[in-house]
């Protein structure tokens, strides 16, 4: 059984605008999958349909099934989906800039957890991102873009997820930082057996680390296959990899 499965999912914004038009995809536990596509293709909307963060007054899943670990999540609110193990790192990081990195991590930890669990999770985050520990007592708003992205990922890890969804983690970062952060995402995927769904416009960077990818255009999945299959596809090369 797949950990996550979407079958023919449709999302409508403002009652009229069909943003995704029957998206189907599957993620196996421990896998690392990318959702690629141009601006406005429907990638963020797909992630929001999974995490429940569409903002019900604007966007609604009007058709299809979303199953996580065998459970239908469509009727569940966002906090229950986090409790089930789905965490969504939104585009633009959304950390608390007036709090320190350490306070950001503590704030993301579930209230019902024990002190011991909190300390263990926080130590794990600092093992992956030692830079955050060095900056633990500065205000997070003063961290660099790369450090803020690390913190956003660290916050997500504080919920002990089974699936982490990352929306454009490369946004605004230098190529060197993108490779550093992507390498760390790969490391976390392997070491924690954490399933990763990565939304990226930077197709080259994403295809370098994932096993499988879906290409979404205009609300439809138009192609899916192994990273190698997509990397060597002439259309992908021309339109998404800068001419290969
Ligand atoms: P980007 O990388 O720019 O976020 P994307 O592939 O993630 O692109 P979406 O953000 O999912 O694309 O947007 C899909 C379509 O839905 C776009 O046409 C967008 O304008 C529209 N859309 C997104 N969010 C909303 C919203 N809150 N209300 C109305 N329309 C929206």
From TrEMBL:
Gene3D superfamilies, per the entry: P-loop containing nucleotide triphosphate hydrolases (3.40.50.300)
Entry annotated with the keyword Transport: yes
Entry-linked PROSITE patterns: ABC_TRANSPORTER_1 (PS00211), ABC_TRANSPORTER_2 (PS50893)
Pfam family, one: ABC_tran
Domain ABC transporter: from-to ranges: 4-243
GO biological process terms on file: L-amino acid transport
InterPro entries recorded: AAA+_ATPase, ABC_transporter-like_ATP-bd, ABC_transporter-like_CS, BCAA_Transport_ATP-bd_LivF, P-loop_NTPase
PANTHER family tied to this protein: ABC TRANSPORTER SUBSTRATE-BINDING PROTEIN (PTHR43820:SF8), HIGH-AFFINITY BRANCHED-CHAIN AMINO ACID TRANSPORT ATP-BINDING PROTEIN LIVF (PTHR43820)
Name of the molecule in the record: Branched-chain amino acid transport system ATP-binding protein
């Amino acid at each position: 059984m797949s950990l996550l499965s979407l079958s023919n999912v449709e999302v409508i914004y403002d009652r009229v605008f069909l943003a995704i038009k029957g998206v189907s995809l599957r993620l196996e536990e421990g896998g690392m999958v990318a959702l690629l596509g141009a601006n406005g293709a429907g990638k963020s909307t797909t992630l929001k349909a999974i995490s429940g963060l569409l903002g019900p007054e604007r966007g609604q899943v009007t058709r299809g099934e979303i199953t996580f670990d065998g459970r239908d999540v469509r009727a569940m609110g966002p906090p229950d989906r986090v409790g089930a193990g789905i965490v969504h790192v939104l585009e633009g990081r959304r950390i608390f800039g007036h709090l320190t990195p350490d306070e950001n991590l503590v704030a993301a930890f579930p209230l019902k957890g024990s002190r011991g669990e909190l300390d263990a999770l926080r130590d794990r985050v600092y093992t992956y991102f030692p830079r955050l520990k060095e900056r633990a007592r500065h205000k997070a708003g003063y961290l660099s873009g790369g450090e803020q992205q690390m913190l956003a990922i660290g916050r997500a890890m504080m919920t002990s997820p089974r699936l982490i969804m990352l929306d454009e983690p490369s946004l605004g970062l230098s190529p060197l930082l993108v490779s550093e952060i992507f390498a760390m995402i790969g490391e976390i995927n392997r070491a924690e057996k954490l399933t990763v769904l990565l939304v990226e416009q930077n197709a080259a960077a994403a295809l370098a680390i994932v096993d499988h990818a879906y290409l979404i255009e205009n609300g439809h999945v138009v192609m899916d296959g192994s990273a190698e299959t997509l990397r060597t596809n002439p259309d992908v090369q021309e339109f998404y990899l800068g001419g290969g």
